[in-house]
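Page 37, top half.
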Amino acid sequence: MTAFITGLITQLSLILAVGAQNAFILRQGLVRNHILLVCFVAALCDSILIFMGVLTFGAIGWMGPSLIIIITYSGAAFLVVYGVLRLRAAYRGSYLMELSEQTPGLRRTLIMLAGFTFLNPHVYLDTLGLIGAVSTQFADFWSKVSFAFGACIGSFVFFFSLGLGAQFLSPWMSSVRAWRILDILVGFTMFIIAALLISH
């Protein structure tokens, strides 16, 4: 039980930081776009990486420095492009899709989610690195598995709380001005995260 709770608390403490994936899921919740599936897929992807990190700690080192650099710069480029798109949307400011409750297709949404998940080096550092490192305090296999399950539950609780909770904010997002402010904040957040990625 101790391992499970430690995993839960560890993952929640890591995932609470504002990131690109969280901002994307927040937006999907606001527009009520396949949010249950989006939250489930995001948590499932995290869970797979968590088990990889716990059961094969050190995997991030096996990737080699060159591959890590490629992932880092690819992720930064992805975030910059998304940030530009959000600022462009804020500048144009029509928001016909959002205000009419039309949403992007499921395929496009999941592709974007995959990008925010697997092109984000922080995801690998958190799951394969930090989660894996914390799990080393548990010596036996089943304690490690319990720790990993706790961390996975943390992901599911957080993503579903974020996505479903965002829907309660929808009444405040019924104007072009509100969406413009959100997109400006998200756009600059993407630029900041991209800059932090390549500065390390």
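Page 37, bottom half:
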Amino acid sequence: MADFDLFVIGGGSGGVACARRAASHGARVGLVEEGSMGGTCVHRGCIPKKFLVYASHFRHDFEDAAGYGWSVGESRFDWPTMVAAKSKELARLEGIYRRLLKESGVTAIDGRGALLDANSVAIGEERYSADTILIATGGWPFMPELPGIELAITSNEAFDLPRLPGRIVIVGGGYIACEFAGIFNGFGVETVQLYRSDMILRGFDMDIREICCDEMRKSGIDVRLNVNAVKLEKNADGIALTTTQGDVLEADQVLFATGRVPSTAAIGLNEAGVERNHKGAVSVDSGSRSNIASIYAVGDCTDRVNLTPVAIHEGRCLAETLFNDNPQIPDHRNIPTAIFTQPEIGTVGMSEEDARTHCAAVDIYKTRFRPLKHTLTGRGETVFMKLVVDRADDRVVGCHMIGSAASELSQLLGVAIKAGATKAQFDETVAVHPTTAEEFVTMYEPVGA
């Protein structure tokens, strides 16, 4: 008899979700984690990033208050205080993760787990057998091979810098790069962002990409497109970064946010015969099973949809399938997504570009305006909203927004898209006034087809 029915390698969102759900159905579950329980989301991603977004946005809030009669007075930001408060909360959250695992009956082990074969895991000198093994080791920031790259940091280190830099160069154009550009800019850091292509946020709706870039520049971020880093050198004032245009940028800190790769090295995948793709991601079928019948994988290590709620969804589906006689296949369609730029982005469903590929004909509805709040603050920030409609059946197949509360709205719009709501049903819904959200149900005339 095996030691466990299920053994999980990785204590992030997907691994913990699967372990707890499986244990709730009576499975004997073990889980190993070499770092802090909670994984990227809790310690190097979603949660600390949102804290920094909140903190950096107070600068705008203080400025905006004057338009409503408030005299805020002199304000000062203390980076060490913020870092300490953040770290204290993350330690509390890790404690909750450990408590929940224990209360669920999961045997949690600290250490680095590696496969020995299809049914065995080694943790140091210890050996454990399991009928089923789950790989949930997440991802890790990618760093390109450039001269002087050791002088740069990634998003991992950005949360615990000993001091706030006065000048920062951020290399990359994805959501992590754009979010950190907004964060450091909000703290008053002189911020330059370099991106090798002609527009940030590849893969998102083009209107959203262009307007986000416009808003970032309006806020004071020096976004430079079609520019990349060539080398980094240490100098008396900090770091000198040479670009592909031949410019030399002086900075106190350089942050590379140039993508993430699956964390699948040195965990015994080759020894167990588990197949990986060209990115190193574990190759799995629709049910998260690898080519080895007893080995599964969920979350970022599979490089499907690299989002925390998706990893949780995949993990729970697997537990239901294997241990509750309730087969479930993860659904990766119409996933609501938020980007915590400033202003933030919320999106669900197809971009206009994707819809024009998949639908015979589409109608496009969109609007851009200054929100009511800023009519008194004088801030030039705008809101943009867009609906993409399949003309064949009037279904709304894409909702996109940039502006305050976009992330919150995208969650609710995700329900509507998932339910197959039509444009007529959007139009029939009574507006809540005065709100920004009402624009989603009052865009009556298409602007493009």
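Margin note: The longest helix spans residues 79-104.
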